[in-house]
Amino acid sequence: MDKKLVKDIKRFSLISNSAINIIVTLFMGVGLGLLLDYLFETKYWTPICSVFFMFVAIYHFIKLIMTIAKMDDKKTREQNNDEKKDI
Fold it and tell me: What is the pLDDT of residue 86?
């Protein structure tokens, strides 16, 4: 397979994985909050867990975007090196 195609597939898989991870993380936070509210007969665990897991999802998303940016930066450097070799 072509190297460019492999890198594009890898980037797409990271982005789609990120969307699934965000959704699952938010549902886990709401589910854990509802479970704790049910067990302790309170009303405040759902918002607390939802906000905490939202920050976890945002942190993971930012980390993933930085990984994709590093991949793009590495790709740009490789293209510049190839252009310099051709000259």
Answer: 65
